[in-house]
């Protein structure tokens, strides 16, 4: 087994010295031969970049789950009904949609119409928002009820109006669980 390696090294040395003028003091570069084991190792698969989790992305995925969502829209700082978009302790993105059972006459972009998606910079902020809304509703039943579902990474909060049928809310929960 040593002879082929010596021949490869000798051939590499001769090839690198050819055309150098013979009197060069620069050491020739020698690369180690690739063994069969190294050549047989598969290359690592390239990392697949995941689409950033935004409210618009979540809404698009929920629409694909065929839940009956209509008039889906991403909110901006100009039309955010809560004025929390991009503000300290607020959400990073927000979207809303009409969902069967929601009040189609409710305020535009509100959870009353069916569904709201809010995405925060971290899971703690999303949990604090959910807890805050639930505490308000517990203290003032006139504010209604909501179901809250969180995305796998905890940063997304999907709010569903309490007027939506429980069977449909369960379907939203199942779709959010896949995100």
Structure description:
There is one protein chain. This protein is α+β, with helices and mostly antiparallel strands. Helix content is 34%, strand content 16%. It contains five helices and five strands; from the N terminus they run H-H-H-E-E-E-H-E-E-H. Strands 1-2-3-5-4 form a five-stranded antiparallel sheet, sandwiched between helices. A hairpin with a 5-residue loop joins strand 4 and strand 5. It is globular and about 60 Å long. The two termini are 55 Å apart. The relative contact order is 0.13.
Helices and strands in order:
Blueprint: H1 2-17, H2 36-40, H3 55-64, E1 70-74, E2 93-98, E3 114-119, H4 123-139, E4 146-150, E5 156-161, H5 166-177
Antiparallel strand pairs: 1-2, 2-3, 3-5, 4-5
How would you briefly describe this protein structure?
With 179 residues, the chain is of the alpha+beta class. The protein is built from 5 helices and 5 strands.
Task: Identify the strand order in the major beta sheet.
Answer: 1-2-3-5-4
Distance linking N and C termini: 55 Å
Mean pLDDT: 82
Oligomer: single chain
**Helix proportion of residues, in percent?**
25-40%
Our count of helices gives 5
Number of strands: 5
Shape descriptor reads: globular
Would you list the SSEs in sequence order as H and E? HHHEEEHEEH
């Amino acid at each position: 087994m040593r002879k082929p390696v010596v021949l490869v090294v000798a051939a590499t040395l001769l090839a690198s010295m050819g055309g150098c003028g013979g009197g060069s003091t620069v050491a020739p570069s020698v690369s180690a031969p690739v063994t069969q084991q190294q050549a047989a190792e598969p290359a690592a698969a390239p990392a697949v970049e995941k689409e950033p989790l935004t409210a618009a992305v979540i809404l698009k995925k929920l629409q694909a789950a065929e839940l009956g969502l209509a008039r889906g829209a991403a909110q901006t700082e100009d039309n955010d009904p809560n004025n929390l978009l991009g503000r300290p302790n607020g959400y990073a993105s927000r979207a809303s949609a009409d969902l069967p059972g929601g009040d189609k006459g409710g305020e535009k972009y509100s959870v009353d119409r069916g569904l709201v998606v809010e995405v925060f910079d971290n899971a703690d902020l999303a949990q604090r928002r959910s807890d805050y809304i639930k505490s308000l509703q517990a203290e003032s039943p006139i504010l209604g009820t909501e179901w809250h579902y969180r995305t796998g990474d905890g940063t997304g909060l999907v709010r569903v109006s309490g007027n939506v049928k429980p069977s449909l809310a369960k379907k939203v929960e199942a779709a959010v669980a896949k995100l």
